[in-house]
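Hey,
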Amino acid sequence: MLLCCYLPVISQTKTIQTKTKTKTPNTMNPTITKKAIVLGVLLVLGLVFFTIVNPFSWNDAGNRTVVERTTGEQIVQFAPGIFYAGFFAKEKEWPNQISVTYQDATAQLELEDNGIEVGQIMIRFSDATTADVRGITQFILPADEKEMILIHNTHRTPQSLVVKRLAPYTKECLQSSAQLMSSEKHYGGGRAQMAQDFLDQLKEGVYLLKTEETLVYDSMEMEKKRVYQTEIQYDKKTMEPKRKLSSIKEYGITVADAAITDVDYENKVDEKLVKIIDAVTKSSISKQELMTAQQQTLTAKAKGEQALVEIEYQQKQDQTKQVVEAQTKVKVAEQDKLQQKIAYEGAILEAKKIKEMADANAYARQRIMQADGALEMKLNAQVEVQKVWADAFSKYTGAVVPQIQTGGGSTGNGALNFMDIMTAKTAKDFALDMKVKN
């Protein structure tokens, strides 16, 4: 804007100088030169004055500007860009979001990147142990003009707001969250719970707590100890946690986010945790060994039972096999007996048949023999006898008739006579009746 004001003045000055040079190319007019100098000085003084009493101002994005006018009126410019502030007005920029960081060991109370470092915050757990907490909390300033003017009038600067209100409120919420658990519980898995309690108290207000005394057994020192347990107070009607009035809600300040990045326990807690870890490790090893032994026992028992089952099953198989074999033998014996019985009965029948046939044949032969006097048998016997002596006689090499004969007698064939004699003898021996009976 100031540049826009300067440009007409510079242009006018150059025009005057050009005209002067045109009129007096060789010599300078003292009257004109003095006028130009005076006019230039007045213009510069006017620009300086305008700069000092400039009624316009600029608001950067991400900030808001609180304006105090000469009339006493206060306004807040939230939108970024140029705006009319008024002549001789005072202005103060505030960030829309202020981050309270507690990362470093010492505080750095300077506003850098809309954040102020207040140093690590020490907390105390319910077992009286301490720790240093690192983290960051982001607060959003109100969008309401009246609330923003109230903050401005109360604290005047962002540093004052952080140091006197936001940092103490953050510390109070952290310490209240730490009192709800012991360091051992926090280490053993309570980090997320503590972070949740911390964020809830930042947004809604600090819990009202109560302390109860109990006796617990310390496994490390092997004795009972008196422990004071801190708990949240609840409203009996609504069952909501009772809270302290939030010191930021009355100014319309809200919490954007909060994160606990690290918790550094004191040495006593670290030493205790080392002992707990060692004890847990030994306990885990013992449990693992016990589980291994139990598993081995169960395995051996299972194997023994399996062997017994296999033996019993094998014995049952053998018994079943023997029973089956015995039953088979019985059935086979019964079958053999049945077959023998059948064979016996068949033999008896066959014997009876043979006997009956033999009797029938004998009877038939007897009847035949009675009918023909056993002619066929006698004939067969006669034939056989004749074959025998005929064969023997055929093999005889001597003289059939005597070589010397005395006396006279009938002439005949000696061999034929011999055969007649033998035939007659055989017929006599068998009492063969050669006559045919009618």
